[in-house]
Amino acid sequence: MKIIVTLKQVVxxxxxxxxxxxxxxxxxxxxxxxxxxxxxxxxxQALEAALRIKxxxxxxECQVIALSAGTGFDLDVMKRAFAAGADxxxxxxDTALDTWDVSxxxxxxxxxxxxxxxxDLVLCGRxxxxxxxxxxxxxxxxxxxxxxxxxxxxxxxxxxHVQVERVLSDGIQVMEANLPAVVTVTSExxxxxxxxxxxxxxxxKRRPRTMTLKELGxxxxxxxxxEMLDLSLLQIERDCQFVxxxxxxxxxxxxxxxxxxxxxxxxxxx
Amino acid sequence: xxxxxxxxxxxxxxxxxxxxxxxxxxxxVADPLxxxxxxxxxxxxxxxxxxxxxxxxxxxxxxNDARLGEPWSEAHLETFTALCRELQPELIILPRTLxxxxxxxxxxxxxxxxLAQDVMTMQLAEGxxxxxxxxxxxxxxxxxxxxxxPWIIVPRTxxxxxxxxxxxxxxxxxxxxxxxxxxxxxxxxxxRTRQTSKINLERARVIISGGRGLGGPEPFQLLHEIAERMxxxxxxxxxxCDSGWVDSGMQVGLTGKTVSPEVYIAVGISGATQHMTGxxxxxxxxxxxxxxxxxxxxxxxxxxxxxxxxxxxxxxEALA
Lengths: 270, 320
What we know:
The complex is a heterodimer of chains A (270) and B (320).
Chain A: E1 2-6, E2 9-10, E3 21-23, E4 28-30, E5 38-39, H1 41-55, E6 63-70, H2 75-78, H3 80-84, E7 88-93, H4 102-115, E8 121-125, H5 136-144, E9 148-158, E10 161-168, E11 171-178, E12 181-185, H6 197-205, E13 209-211, H7 213-216, E14 226-233, E15 241-242, H8 248-261
Parallel strand pairs in A: 1-6, 1-8, 6-7, 7-13, 8-12, 9-12
Antiparallel strand pairs in A: 2-5, 3-4, 9-10, 10-11
Chain B: E1 4-11, E2 14-15, H1 18-33, E3 37-43, E4 59-64, H2 73-87, E5 91-93, H3 98-111, E6 114-119, E7 121-125, E8 128-135, E9 140-146, E10 151-155, E11 172-176, E12 187-194, E13 206-210, H4 219-230, E14 233-236, H5 238-242, E15 263-267, H6 273-279, E16 284-289, H7 296-299, E17 302-305, H8 308-318
Parallel strand pairs in B: 1-3, 1-5, 3-4, 4-11, 5-10, 6-10, 13-14, 13-15, 15-16, 16-17
Antiparallel strand pairs in B: 1-2, 7-8, 8-9
């Protein structure tokens, strides 16, 4: 059993909006310099799904490979994959990968997966917290010609199939796909395990395997189908009108009256 | 390649309300684009396909198949791809639902199309489609250019006002077969359980949401009481859901639902990207928070800096 988990390094989504900056030239959003990036939350959960499957197998029978394509990797952050239990971490680092062109990223990931000899199961996060496209895993499945099941809160390998519980907006759907397959994972699956100190120390000593775009034979082929023309922060989008009263309760009452007066809310007839 | 094709999603045989927002988006570019409007309705035991004609579509293609009665993406994708290849539309518009977003991404790969999700505005000039969309939880806006057709767009819920149905539609209904071969499908449905919950956050006009600042499950009772007094629906940010204070179906944000009500009242919510992704396109955001520096106030139209324990009872009283 070979599982490849795709990871994306992103600006921490818990960063307050006021601390974000735009690098206009690179059309990129930057977090504060003293705050490290994180692995996209859903991708961490995809890694957790892989590690849970690995526990079902005997030692050495299931391999979990973490794979990431991007630029400016923070190795301490990415090595969390090792600490949590990934057998290998593969990084493709190139400034060209700092792009809105999802198709280029997906072609890179597909080429890397082929280079790694393919996988029985590819696990991805359902979407990334920065661009929020929810596109790459689905396009990857198409490119690899694999079935794709999305939004899994539980992933179980049963012989030649994978069975997942999908979280829909109004309930749960259980679905099955033939292996090999691509499965995307949602937050309900649970957080990535926190590795013990020993594992973290060992992880610090390990080195990721690196691949280059050249090795993979992937090049960006402009013009991309979608180009980003502009990126701007909307920080002062609204001028907040603060309601103040003699007491906080009074402020609450005045707020309600303001909203009723403006026709925004209507008290219901009892 | 010509014209616009809308994918109309159904639930229980009824077209989703998103459809009229998709029509509104289509009408914005229909004239310069030319080539007319067509609609694909896919589902099982579809009841209101003729309503789709009121969009002004020349043809409404109706595919009735038991396998299309569920959000089974492979079945829907194969059916819709076949229609797209036949009709060769220049612009395809899908709804921003789990199914719509998924079909959009896979179709983009199949048709080598440019795709923009979560579109707020769009403009057609010199054969290129330029759109804006929020990123980073609405903290930023990206302007994207879709360089060559076919284009696929997924409008943000609430960004386009629902279009007015025409009173005398002229188009025709065209029945189609799904042509799905069970053995050729790579995914299978095993079972589905649906919650029959009355609350519908996505369609609520007024939402009052609680966050970590509420400190526990009990204060949500007060939120429910206030909601009842003004006909609102109660939502939550991620921490109350993760802590089990409230049902995770109430979650608004990146990991929950995207909402765009007229009024969004955030109580004890700091306003991290994670949450704002789900509510930043609300018409009016009202924030009640103890911390005057909370980022939520940057997105809010009205705010009260104070302890919800004091502010909410006053608010509730004024609704009596």
